[in-house]
Amino acid sequence: MNFRAEIDVMPLKELLDPQGKAVAHGLQKMNFDGVADVRIGKHITIKVNANSKEEATTQVENACKKLLANPIMEGYKFEIVQE
Amino acid sequence: MNFRAEIDVMPLKELLDPQGKAVAHGLQKMNFDGVADVRIGKHITIKVNANSKEEATTQVENACKKLLANPIMEGYKFEIVQE
């Protein structure tokens, strides 16, 4: 079965996000007044071929832990969608 | 009212995504066999203060067009969530 994983890898809340701060500052300079607290991370989509949704979930969980997210600085969450 | 925008900015389908290719290659080397077609973009969260969901949507749409996404190389989609 074919699945698609939609993964968000974001800087942990406790950490500064200089890229987000720069974008927030840019938006304010461009007169976006109600905008604050911008945080920027990665969005990753992966096609996964697996026998079940559980197997796909395990694969993606392992991929996040071992390669996609740096646990010292980043958290991740994902959704598995059947295609 | 306070809203949170969850924005995904992804490289257009027509374009190569070298970062995604590198990650796909890395995953295959690590014996993630069923994994293919990795694409990597940005995930951006923004807090928006606006009078209505429509106003928040307009602000975020403009922010995407003017600053967050490069229309030549990237597409974007977003969700507005009330907080």
In short:
Two copies of one chain form a homodimer. Chain A has 83 residues and is an alpha+beta fold. Chain A contains two helices and three strands; from the N terminus they run βαβαβ.
CATH superfamily of chain A: Phosphoribosylformylglycinamidine synthase subunit PurS
Largest interface: A-B, 34 and 34 residues
In the sheet with the most strands of chain A, the strands line up as 2-1-3
Q: Structural class of chain A, please?
A: alpha+beta
Quaternary: homodimer
Please state the average pLDDT score of chain A. 95
How many helices of chain A? The count is 2
Number of domain units of chain A:
1
Task: Provide the CATH top-level class of chain A.
Answer: Alpha Beta
Distance between the termini of chain A: 8 Å
Classify the helix fraction of chain A into a percent range.
Answer: 25-40%
Give the low-confidence spans of chain A: none
What is the C-alpha radius of gyration of chain A, as a whole number of Å? 16 Å
CATH topology name of chain A: Mth169, Chain: A
> What general outline of chain A do the C-alpha atoms trace?
elongated
Query: How does the major sheet of chain A shape up?
Result: 3 strands, antiparallel
CATH hierarchy: architecture of chain A: 2-Layer Sandwich
Which percent band covers the strand fraction of chain A? 35-45%
What order do the helices and strands come in, and which of them pair?
The structure is a homodimer of 83-residue chains.
Chain A: E1 2-11, H1 18-29, E2 35-49, H2 53-68, E3 74-82
List keywords for this structure.
41% strand, alpha+beta, homodimer, 3 strands, 83 residues
